[in-house]
Design goal:
single chain, alpha+beta, Ribosomal Protein S5, domain 2, 3 helices, elongated, ribonucleoprotein, Ribsml_uS5_D2-typ_fold_subgr, ribosomal protein, RNA binding
Length: about 140
């Protein structure tokens, strides 16, 4: 028997990050590739409405020269359509910054919008007991 030696291949660099907005959650995987961007296995050009695509493409337009050879795959769930778009935006921005490890890219994103990497922490206010809405109170009659 002859011993076969296995060639060790260098591990491919993959970054997985999370973005959130209200109840919406987005997980993005960034890796070297051909430059494709997919959200829930759908190309970005076909995903959602024009408004949602505009929200998602903001970080891509700011650093388009740096991401020509990156594949970005995003999975999103929960919340509404616009909340998911905002969560995807945060996840893509974080993924690009973590993958490239470039301070210039980070500064470009933060100078555009300081919440693009940290996300929006606001949440829906919960309903209170014996009320139909968070702050609505039944009108009181004195006569």
């Amino acid at each position: 028997m002859t011993a076969q030696t296995k060639q060790k291949t260098p591990k491919e660099k993959i970054v997985v990050v999370v973005g959130k907005k209200k109840k919406a959650l987005a997980r993005a995987r960034v890796r070297a590739g051909k430059g494709s961007i997919r959200i829930n296995s759908v190309p970005l050009s076909q995903w959602g409405s024009y408004y949602e695509r505009t929200i998602v493409s903001e970080p891509l337009l700011l650093v388009q020269d740096s991401i020509r050879d990156l594949d970005i795959d995003v999975w999103t769930e929960g919340g509404g359509k616009v909340g998911q778009a905002a969560a995807v935006r945060v996840a893509i921005a974080r993924g690009i910054v973590d993958f490239l490890r470039n301070s210039e890219v980070r500064k470009a994103l933060i100078s555009y919008d300081d919440k693009i990497l940290s996300g929006d922490a606001r949440q829906r206010e919960p309903n209170k007991p014996n009320r139909s809405a968070p702050r609505a109170v039944r009108q009181k009659s004195y006569r």
